[in-house]
Design brief:
Length: 139
């Protein structure tokens, strides 16, 4: 970018003190489990959910996936899974179909929650939690 004139040369030399090479996630498969746990914990807290583990089948998919979006993609997959999860374990049906398709596993549409049903479930949980928090009952 400096050569093209789209980035200031003086700024480049100011920030280019230490050069770090970070290989992509597909070359660091040993990082998938600790990163997944970190993201699971973070998004469970943020979304006020009690998801405590990731199913072994999910890890199998994670290890066979190429992760073209690197760690950011893994983070997004975990966040989506936490939002859609209905139990205390992140399972295959909580994952995006794009991830499932690339691993050669076919999914049935009836097993995948629709965006509308996921939103309705999240909304219902939120309302129930708020009613409980304020010691109100419903139904």
């Amino acid at each position: 970018m400096v050569a093209e004139g789209t980035f200031r040369e003086d700024l480049y030399y100011r920030i280019n003190v230490i050069h770090l090479e970070v290989p992509p996630l597909r070359e660091r498969r040993e990082d998938i489990i600790p990163l997944s746990h970190e993201f699971l914990t973070r998004f469970s807290i943020i979304n006020d959910k009690n998801i405590v583990q990731i199913d072994h089948e999910v890890y199998t998919l994670f290890f066979s996936y190429a992760w073209p979006g690197n760690i950011r993609e893994l983070e997004n997959v975990i966040e989506r899974g936490v939002v859609l999860a209905t139990g205390d374990t992140l399972v295959r049906s909580d994952l995006p179909s794009s991830l499932l398709g690339t691993s050669g596993i076919q999914t049935q549409t009836s097993q995948q929650p629709s965006l509308l049903s996921a939103r309705d479930n999240a909304e219902k949980q939120f309302i129930e939690q708020e009613l409980s928090r304020h010691r109100l009952s419903y139904g």
